[in-house]
Every structure is written in C-alpha cells, then in structure tokens.
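Q: Could you write out the predicted structure for this multi-component system? I'm mainly interested in how the pieces pack against one another.
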Amino acid sequence: MIERLGLVTTQLPTATSSAMVLLAVVMPVLLGVLGGAWRPLRGWPGLALALIPLLALLWLVQQIAVHGTQAWVLELGSLTLHWRANGLTLLLLLLTQWLVLASAVYTPAYLRVAEQALGRGAVWLWPLMGLLATSLSLIWMAADLLTLYIGLELMGLTAVGLILLPGREEALAAGMRYLLLALIGSLAFLLGVALLLGSWERLDLAGLAVVVEPSPVLWVAMALLSAGLLLKAAAFPLHAWLVPVHGSAWTPVSALHAALVIKASFFIALQLWLVLAPQAAAAAWLVGGMGAAAVVWGGLLAWRADKLKDVVAWSTVSQLGYLLIGFPLLIGTSTAVASIAWAGVWLQLLAHSLAKAAMFLAVGNLMLATGESRVSGLAGASRRFPLSLLSFGIAAISLVGLPPSAGFTAKWLLLHASLAAGQWPWLVVLAVGTLLSAAYVFRVFRYSFVEDVEREDYRPVPLRMDLVALALALASLILGLTATWPLALLAIAGGTP
Amino acid sequence: MSQAWLPLITLATSLLVAPLILLLPERAWRARAVLNLSAALLKLLLVGLMVVGLYQGREFAFGFTVVPGVEFLLRVDALGMMFAGLSSLLWLATTVYAIGYLEDSPNRKRFFAFFSLCVASTTGIALAGNFFTFLLFYELLTLSTYPLVVHRGHSAALAAGTVYLRYTLSGGLVLLLGVVALHALVGDITFGEREMLRDLGPEYHSLLIGLFLVLLLGLGVKAALVPLHGWLPRAMVAPAPVSALLHAVAVVKAGAFGIVRLVYDVYGIQLTFELGLLTLLTALSVFTILYASLRALAQQELKPRLAFSTISQVSYIVLGISLFGPFGTIAGLAHLMHQGLMKVTLFYCAGNYAEELGIHRIDELDGAGRRMPLTSLAFTVGALGMIGLPPVAGFISKWYLGIGAVQAGMSWVIAVLVASSLLNAAYFLPILHRLWFRAGPEHGKGQWPEERHLGRFETSSWLLWPTLATALFSLLAGLLAGLPFSPLDLATLVATEEYLP
Amino acid sequence: MPPLVDVLLATLPVFLAAFALLDRHLVRACSLFVLFALVVALNWWQLGFIWLALLETLLGAALTGAFLFHALGIGPARRAPPVRRSHGQDPLPLTWRRGLVHLMPVLALLGMLAAALASLPASDTSPAARWSGLVLVGLGLWVFNLKAHLLRRLLAFNITGTGIFLLLMTLVGEAGTAAGQALVITGLVVAWLGTVLGALLIRRLGALATHHESTLINDGQAS
C-alpha cells in the first residue's frame, strides 16, 4: 500500500520541477495577498493569474508521467522534511487548484451581489483563500509528520478565519465552536505524533512504515491521531459542528470547505493508517461502521433539513461516510480488492469534491436569486432559474451516484470492492445511502417544479456565477465516463523509477 | 471507420439536441420544432442504415474503457435494432404530436430538452453492447423521464413523480447491485457471450438463480410486472405524449427489453431453462396478464384503463420469451414492436379526445365517433389489435404465442391467451360501442365536457397525422408481416440467431 | 529520587493551572495563567531547551496573556467599554456529580496514555516533568469538557497544549530532539494564534450580545 502513496520514491527532483512545485505551492498565497490589496471586482484577473500555478502543475504532471515520481528532502539544520509528488498527490493538487480557481472566479460577483457593502471581511478573504490553497498543497505533498502537522494547523486556522468573515452572529458562534473543536483535534493529533516520535524517534512516513511494529503505544497513538483527524473531517459522530459552519459561511467558502478542507483530514487519516497499521482490519471495520452510521444519519437529516444549505451540509456528512467505508476495504484486504477500492475511494473523493462545490455554488445562486434560504422557497425555480437548477441537478446526479457521473463510477468500484472482499454490510450501506441521497435531492427538485406560485421579487444572479457552478458540475459528470484519466494518473504511484 | 461511429452518431442525434434546445430561448418554438424534427428524421435514417447494414452482415461497434475491466460499448445487433427502430420511428411521431399538444403551454423548452434526453437514453439502451452500458442508459432514462412526469407541476403530478422515482430508483439500485455482482463473478458482461455463465458449473447454480432474481426485480419495476407495477397508473398525470412514449417505447419497454437481454444474451435461453427460471417467468407473466386485465375492467377513466392494459400487454413479451422454443421467442419479440405501435396509437387518441373535447372518462365518449371519425377509427384499429383480431398486428403476436405454447408443451397457456383476449374484448369493446353506436352530444344529447376547435380537421393536424400514421403502421405490421424488414421478420432474424448456432 | 528543584518545578505548574482553571474570577484566572506560562518557561530552561523557554515567555506568557486580557476588555487601548460585568465573574458550573461524570472520559484517556507510556523507556532526565505533563493534559481536558465560559475553555485548551508539549519533549530521545522542538514551536504558534482568534471572537460575540440587549431594551421603551 505504501508504494501507492508514493512514499518509497527515492528519485530526486530536477531543479525545474522543484521550481514548478514551489510555484504551485507558494503562488496562491502571493496571489491572495495581491487580491486582498486590490480586491478585484471582476473574475478574469484572478482567473488569468490563478492559471499560472495550474499550468505549473500540468507541466509537473507531464514530467512525472514521463520520468516517474519524485521526492524532495529538505535539510534544515538537524531537521529533515520530506515531500513527494506522485500521481495521487498531483491529482489532489490539480483538484485543489481547479476548485480554488473556480471560487476565485465566482467570488467577486458573489461579494458584489450578496454583500452590497464590501465590509472588512472581503479584505481578508483573498489572502486566506490563497493560504488555504497553499496549506492544502502542503498536506498533499507532505511525506513526514511534521510537515503534515504544519499543513494541518495552517489549514485549520485559515478555515476558521474564512468561516468568520461574514461577521454575523451565527457565523461567529459557529466559528467559535469550530475553532475550539479544531484546536482540540490538533492537540489529539500532536499527542499521537508525540507518542510515535517518542517510540521510534523519527517522523518521516516511509521510515516509520519500516520500523513501526504493533504495540500498545502504536494503538494509542493511532487512536489519538484518528480521533483528531476524524473530528476535523466531521466523521460521524464527531460531525455536529459542520452544519452550522456551512450554513453561515459565505458560499464560495462553504464550497471550498466541504470540497477540500474536510477531505484533507480524511486524506491524512487514511495515509497514516496505510503507513502505520496496514493490517489492522478490526479497527478499520470500526471506522467503516462510523462511515455507515454517517451515511444513514447524514442522509436522514439532509432529508429532514429545512434550509437549502443545511441539506447540502448534511449531505457532506453522509457522503464522507462513503469515503470512510474505504478504510475496511483498503486495510487488511487482498491486493486485488485493495486496488479496486483504491481507485474507488479517490474517484469518490474527486467526484464528491467537484459535485459538492458545484452544489454549494448552485444553491448559493438559488438563494441569492430567490432571497429565500429554505427549501420550500424554491417553488417555481425551475422555470425562472433553469441554469442554476441544472447545475444543482447535475451535481446531484453525481452525489446520488447515478450514471453517467463520476459518483456512479466510484460507487460501482466501491460496490465491486466490497463484493470481492465479501464484506456484505457495505453493500447495504451504499444502497441505503443511494436511496437516501436520492430522497433529499429530489425533495429539492420537487419544490422547484411547483408551478402555482406567483412571486415577482426575483433578482437573477450574474451569468458568470451560474457558469462556474455549471462547469464544476459538468466536470463531476464527465469524469464518470472518462474515469480512466484520473485513474491513469493514480497509477503513477512511484516506487520504481 | 464510419461504421464504428454510426452507433455513436445515432446516439448523439438526440443526446446533443437536449443542450441545444436548452440554449434556445423559450419562445423560439419554430427553431425548436425544426431542430427536433430534423434530429428525429436523421436518427430514423441512421437506424435504417444500420438495419440494412445488419442484414448485409456488417458489424457496428464503438467502445472505450471506463475503468479497468469495465467497458462502455455500443454495438448493433438484431435485437437492439428492433428496439432502436421502434423508438426512432415513434420518436418522430411523438415529436410531431408533442409540438401540437403543447402549443402555448409553459415550459416547453424544458419539456423538449428532457424529451430528447429520454429518447437518447432509449437509443442507448437499444445500442448497449454490455450490461454496464445498458445500466448506464437505463438509469439515465429514469432521470430524464422524471421532469416529464411532473411537467405540469400541480400536486397530483408531483405526487406521481415521487411514486415514480421511488419505484424506479429502487429498481435501478437493485439492478445495479445485480450487475455489479455478475461483474465481480465473471468480469465484463458483453451481450451475446452466453458461455461465460454457462461454463461456471453446477456449484454456482444457486448463486446464478439468486442473481437472476435480483436482476429480474430490478428490470421488473420498469417492465411493470405485477406486483411492481404501482407507479404506472399513477404516472398517467403526465401530458399525453409523455404517457404515450412511456408506455409504448421508453420506460416500460426498456424494462421488457432488459428482461429479453437478460434471458437471451446474458444467461442464454438454455441456461435459463436449465435453472428452471423460465417457468417462473411464465407464471409471473400469466399472473400479470390476467390481474392487470381485471384491473383494467374496473377503471372508469380512459388513460388508467389504457395503463392497466399496457401492464397486461407488456407481459405478453415476457410470456413469449418464457416459452422455450423459437416461436415463443418470435412472438415475444414481435410483440415488443407491435404493442408499441398499437399502444402509442391508443394514447394519441386519448390525448386527442382530451384536447379537443375535454374527455377523460369513458362514459363521456358517447358518440365521439361522429365528431372525430378519424381519431375514433385509429382508436378502433388499436383496440382491435390489442384484442388480437386479424389483420391488425396484435393478431400475429397472439398466433405465434399460441404456436409457441404448443411447441413448448404448455398448452394451458392457450387457455390463458383466450381468457386474456376475452378480458381485452371486455374492456375495449364497450368503448368502441360508445364511440360508434351510442348517441352523444353530436346527436344533440348533452354536451362535451370542454369542446375546443383546434384545427381545420376534427382536431389540430399536428395531433391527427401522427395518430393516423401509427394506426396505419400497426395495420401494416399485421398485413405485411411476411415481408422483409417487418417486425416479424426482424424477430425471426433474432430468433434464428438464438436457436441456430 | 529526582532533585527537589525538579519536583518543585514540575508540581508548581500543576497547582497554578488548577488555580487558574478553578478560580471563579476570570481576571485572576488569566493572571494565574500568565504566571503558569512563566513557570513552564522555567521548566523548559531547566530541561535545557532555551529556545522553547524564550518562545514560551514571549508567546505563551506575554502575547497570549495580552489577548486573554483583551477578551476581558482590559487593555492599554480602551476603545470600547469593558464587556458585560458578568464576564468578570464566572463560577464554574461544577457540582460533584457533573465533575465526576466529566472526569470519567478524561481518566479513560489518561489511563490509555499511561499504559502506552509504561511500555516506553522511562525518561532518565525528567520523570517529574512527564508526570506533570500528563496531569496538565487531564486537568485541561476535564475543564474543557465542563462547557464553562468560552474564555475558560481557551485557558483549558492552552493548559492541555502545554501539558502535551511537556510530554512530547520528555518522550523524545537524542535523535528526535530537533523534530520535537519543531513540533512544539509549531504547536506554540498555533496555540497562540488560536487564542488570538478565540479572544477576538469572545470580544466580538460579547459586543454583539450587549448590542442585542440594548436594542431589545430600546425597542421595549419605544413600544
């Protein structure tokens, strides 16, 4: 498994690829600061500039496809930091850049429409968004626990900052709660790292994978690390903070948070399990059970939710359950099963990130246009805002996992993996999750098709905002039949140059 | 090269029309009509090309890998072409009909976009070369028909839409589980490669039976097999062209077609027979035929009666394939097309009565034959065909079914056929009697519920011509059954493919 | 038998932390916290981590303290009137029953940790600091669990964090010292940033609450 994570890569980077990585990682912060200083009123300058790191990444993808994966070892005195870039890393980096780019295009118009008076919050939005992209990139690339810790903390604090920006009371209250839980999560993570460092005297993942052996220290450390990370990932039953946070934040912030921030914690958790406890099947079943509960509980509450944003937020809780089911399918299973599940998990992550971001943006558009935040306020929307609803619909197809979306292909792979592993319970969970997600999604549609309402106070949102949502939704749809592309990238695992 | 792309282009004709329609403004109805009709004609042409190519023994296939081990495959075979031909022919007719039917009503853009998507899914189902691709379009069909069912947006439509989704999404999910399980068992399941499952050996037989039942459950929802039929009568709230399409080609037929694929191209008729599953299918279809006919008798409104009639008639297809022998197969497959033609006619007629005269209940039809003679004539052709009287197409189906039953050594099925024909007669003949022989508003007795004068003829010509055309086709399919390219001929081609190695 | 200074240095933070967490008067609690941070800095000095001692003094004591007082409305720049008076006084919602119930999970965690630590080689230089770290973790988590005033929870978080830092540095051997220091420095910065954010938030929430109250009263008078 650790080969798949690209941790055994030894090939040293070329100077150009180091420069490109640096560009991709650091550029977003610089752009963010620039954005904070100038506060663009249009999307295109951001778009043009944010293309630079994306292009750098594409160059890197090409480079790595040809020459194999690369690893960086940074010596800082007696301290060594490890970074690596393999197919998975690049896939996640691309996803991050793509989503941040989309929100950067979306944001100026959103701020203009939603927050007539550009308050102080907007000054901070751009640098924080840049910082978020950078910290996420750091997390995807990190191959040692220190870098992971730094990335995780940077991301956590940035995320809290972003949530607080609207400055309304409910946002502040949700942010405070989020802050406290995030801090506690970090402490648990740090304590786990401390135990690992105390027992094995090293923090690089590749080295730890070789030296760790099952022992009480390892179990306690894993429990602490997982608890901290799953709290930050809003895994059931540690999910209660998520919905108020998403409900009160600005729409592009909610989109980024649900699509990326939560996934980062999940990514770290899965990586640590694969590195430190690749055979702990029983514990992985426990996590899988949490995932199952999340699927059902999140689905039920999304179905019952009254506000549009709450529906989307609860759906995040539910969808994260699918990812957690990846634990028992990847840990302690045969290679054949694990390789199917591996593709399934990352495709699901990709599909959900794109679809969820699209759905948040679409819902944001609908809420701005109707001036209503409740599901029932959508009556008649299908006639008046076909484009927003179309984006919502396409994103919903992927969330429910209906063909030909990426969500479907991912679900197919997960189902196949659970059948091949003989782990029947997950089959039931995936089936129930599908039905529940269909139920909450079509509940929204049902309202939008209602015809006998006459209301005139609509303010259509700028076309650009709709197009951004549509682009993300289409990406999640198209990845369904073209799943070979991300999977081919994923196959560049590393290990042998 | 062009041969590989032919199925893809056929699919694209309706798939690409959907976004184009969405881009057109709502009031550009002329451009929309031109777009719709030219796409429908083009598709019919392409399907015709493929049918001719098929008779000449050419291969058309297009495929690519989705994820390792899973293939997206479009492939032309005789069975698929039957279904594709039916759907493209009826799409053309229904497009014309829908343009007339929805004149001046709101949300036409949305309607036609999803309408195209729906036909694209049906074409995809017909052209699917493996189970994965089939599933893909099968689910897409659910999605694209939902907006059509709830099109009117009132509470009855929304409630019906919810019921519809509940049934079809659950069915789709069950089907997905079954397909994934088969996939995990033997890998990619290309239609026609029947050895795969046959070679598995007897220790797998109970598993195969279980999987067959799961798949049948998934497909049976759309095929409206009793007791999975509950959504169909409720979905009658949809506009008439939608009901026509749902019943004649799209949804119900997709289910029936799926069962045909399952029996012939996945399990193979031999294996299905050996597993004892054909008997199950026979029992299920016989029960559905009789039960739905009885329910149809009890309906007081025209469209629900037609709906129950559909449930009953679609099961003839299942009955046909469950009779182990070439004649049963031919009967089942031919009926796939015959029923489509006849039922679409009947629904057009029901729509015409509703639009022109505001008639929804059967007892309001008194004397309508005099007011709308051509529509009533078409209705009569359809109804007689359903009962199975020569020379309408329905007769051919029932005749071959009878022969097939004798051949399979199940003569009791003939009794079922007779009983069902009597029931058909019992619920259709009173309508015909009312149409032609009872005095109504046209004779100065009472008045029509809501009379409008939509066109030069008895109703708008957009509505009238498709009705007459499909009625004519159902007559011709019966009269000219012996000629090449007729439904019966295509069915025979499929059956010989199946029985002559 | 560890030398007396060690024991004293290790127990003093525990007592200070306990007083800071349980004192009903928040201003006094914050002052005690600053004192606590200073003593911890001394501990770092004693353990030989000069940089950590400096950073603890700067970030842990001075800057964190400043922001904690800011949250209470006490600061050099008195732009706004101090927040509601009730903020100054904050009796812990502590009964025997509540306290015991919330102690259970903490004890479970501590037991787990102790079991893990028992299997590790004992620290030869600073066993007392390890124990005081463990107790600080437990104490902080316990008070955090009690759902007290937000400021109190911030204090509890900082104390838990300090406990973890102490544990960490007593766990690492020669090879891991650099990595350990890097982790603690990151942790200190994060804790400080978290406290800053928290303090600003508490201040803002308090202001919004008083604003609400005054508008409510005004509305009442108007009608």
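A: Regarding packing and overall arrangement: The longest helix of chain B spans residues 155-186.
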